[in-house]
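Re: How this chain folds, sequence and tokenised backbone to follow
How to read it: Take the token row as a discrete description of the fold.
Start of record: The labelled sequence and token lines come straight after this line.
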Amino acid sequence: MTPRFMMARTLQRKLWELHTVVPSPADDDTLLYVDRNFVHEESAWSFEGLKLRDKHIVMPENHVAFIDHYAPTIRIGNSRPRDPEAAGMLDTLAQNSRANGLMFFGLENPRQGIMHVVAPELGMVLPGLLITGSDSHICTNGAFGSLAFGISQTEITQVFVTQTVWRTAPKAMRVTLEGSLGFGVAAKDVALAVANHVGANGAAGHIVEYGGSCISGMTMEERMTLCNMSIEMGAQSGLIAPDDTTFSYLEGRPHAPKGALFARAIDHWRTLSSDPGAPFDRELAIDATAIAPMVSWGTTLEDVTAVDGFVPYPDHTESAERKARMEKALNYMDLRPGMEIKGLPIDIVFIGSCTNSRIEDLRMAAAIAKGRIAAVQAVISPGSGTVKQQAEAEGLDRIFQDAGFEWRASGCSMCVGSNGDTVARGKRCASTSPRNFEGRQGVGARTHVMSPAMAAAAAVTGKISDVREFIR
């Protein structure tokens, strides 16, 4: 028998073994060391767990707190949320952060924003780290070759006290995308296409590693979009092996290694890839050249079609369960099988969220908005204060405002609506958010997920439109 240490290993396996404190022969209930842990306003019970156990955070420098879900995006006066309960949650996180010595990105911090945007842009996310957090989209950080997944509030308390967490080893899935993306196709379209192939829960129990020439050609921001959406397929996380693109992005970031330490780090980071012949539990190959701009029509990200496609017929599926889900989704979305998705009227547009609120996303949307006028309400919320400042330095804010778009402050905003930015009942929203389930953006709201450029095209036409017709 080949010794285990000589076997070809996946990147996921390498990261798992690097962080194992107490191993399990069966790969269940493994105790893992946590390098970074991120929390937000909804983490109050994690801190209460400390008090109930009369414990303290053993390594506060490895924990960071963010205001994002309840951050008001219309900042007036002292910028506090109008809702007293939301304001109290912000105050509680600020107090807990000060009391425990955590780095805190509150509303007064010029870099405040969504944790999955702020942490990477500051270099807090590095290849080879194990990162946990109070939000499922922590999987975004797998784009850097880190093992990243969301955990419960009880588990966060454990990480506070021990800097470790118990975890059952997930299965490994590889998605290979070969070829260059077509005209007008973005990383969001790739994510939607993969979700359509895999299914809404098709990657349950897995971590998905992405590879192939399409991935190699992506920027870090595009890779973050892709990994961010892995959770929407039921996966625990997404993962991409670090390469020169990763290293170039990280160099000079405030919390990244400097000088000789950075060079030494790169030597280690280059070892973080799956070995040739490493066994995956499941593999999927997708022709990236065949991907078109995509739009969701239903209430999961399995429910998507190309912008020049049609709403599908439930009767054409072989699964009775899938047929029932499709019929329910069509009823909620008020759509009929066979309808063209292109041309469907839109009531409001949202560009933002942890998926698509970075500078490249805003540039993409601005290229469509420039010289045009919004036909419906369009809201833009940058992912962080840093992104907002950079966009304003580039004049993107003026392009949006001249086109009639609302230029807001940073936060999760209309993606989840917990800060009051919601979509009215029965209204359709062209959104760059990662989720479209019933009520996600507001009670009775109907969400059509798409790329930033597609959302901008919908804003200036008032209907779902093919962005390829707008690109000069």
In short: The chain has a mean pLDDT of 95.
